[in-house]
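Final report, Chapter 2: Outcomes

The project's central promise was a pipeline that accepts a single protein chain and returns its three-dimensional structure in a standardized token representation, suitable for archiving and comparison. That pipeline is now operational. To close this chapter, we reproduce one record exactly as it appears in the project archive, with the input sequence first and the structure output second.
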Amino acid sequence: MLLLLQMKESSQVIQLAKTNLSLYLFVAYKSSSLSPLASELKTEIDRITRLINDHPFPDEPLQPTLLRHIPPVSLSPSFVESVLGRLFAAHSNGLKALEFFKYSIHHSQLTPSVDAFEKTLHILTRMRYFDKAWELMIEMRHTHPSLLSLKSMSIMLAKIAKFQSYENTLEAFKKMETEVFVWRNFNTDEFNVLLRAFCLQREMKEAKSVFQKMHSRFSPNIKTMNILLLGFKESGNVTAMELFYHELLRRGFRPNSMTYNIRIDTYCKKGFFGDALRLLEEMEQVHCLPTLETITTLIHGAGLARNTPKARQLFDEIPKRNLQHDIGTYNAMIGSLIRSADINSAIELMDEMQRKQIEHDGVTYHTMFLGMMKFSGIEGVCELYHKMTERNFIPRTRTVVMLMKFFCENQDLDLGLNLWDYLVQKGHCPHSHALDLLVTGLCSRGRLQEAFQCCKQILERGRHMSESVYRMMQRFLKQYDEMDKLMELNRMIMKLQSVLPPSGGKAIGCTC
């Protein structure tokens, strides 16, 4: 039995014996132009992702479907990681992702990867399935303790800090110590994870409180101080960040490249590009070598300052610093060109990336679409959109929402539907914000049947629709005497509400 699986190494063939079957894993090198092997693998991952996303939920169990379509012998760690990665990007229902992960554990003789577990945990916590997430972590403690890492702890605590209270987050940290990571002696690394959870949410009052309460138990290191410094930076308070930087110095810590990068980024985003350049000079004077992140941040800052020549100089100097251009540096330079209205040079950089086999990512497309919308209009956007879909690239949620808004505002609902169908065919469940925009546009043009189908597709994939969209559909379906369709939506919503937590606390009431 042949199965084509993509991994990061150069092409190799691995033979595994399982129950009288020989499984050959052909490994394709990842490049901008996919080899036939990698292309076939991608097609298989698309198929399985679509199968899971399209499965009627929660009307039918998923496990029998997985058993029919995914032979256990094909469940390599890299294949499971790839499918879960697609489910995460596709905003798939968390319970479906959990079922697939459990299927891979129970039907494969290979140990699941840390990455697969972390993706599953991320999908669950993003949808606030905290009970399921705790159950999974405790189950892994008993069966696969090697999967429990600082990153999995960080994923859980960050989402609890985002959606629950300060006290809940501290209780979760204690539960991690006493019930999940029972073999670990909690120290500074774990303390840093807790601080980072609050700093990610810009809850600096809470972060400072935790620091004051616990720093005597957990000795802070420079990473601790950088996490707090980053939190002050994200809060947008330059003064508070600088005050904490001086506290860092008073405590005897020596700034490293990350410390400088955080401060440089703050000054760039606040429009103090000259101060950021002076920090670069200071780094070099104290023999703290600038990293690729440092230069990328400065290129971005030069773009914000509309100083394209300086951005280009920094970009061109990268090889002279014994560094190599990567996707981040190209994206920063493209952003700088877009801000100076040099759309043609930005397009040339995209072409250069392809020649150097640096793949365009979500940031590349988002930045270019912003430029096209501003300087090229609907024609430029459409041209880039068709290129993106021809390359089978799936944009990130913010880009999907931005494109949907642009198409609907330009009264090009067919393109909006085309984008919707493209995502669904790729196994994605479009975000509810995209649904809001599309349904509003369709209903305002009297295209009620198409709006109804989009709503059904969201619900069939196990995701909530917003209350505003429901009320709009309710009003239009009643107006056009389509009560059977309204009853169908109500049935699907009530079924979902029996198993799903409310989306953002906005449960939908179903009244005919």
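Archive annotation: DSSP finds 26 helices and three strands in the chain.
This record, like all others produced under the grant, will remain available to the consortium after the project formally closes.
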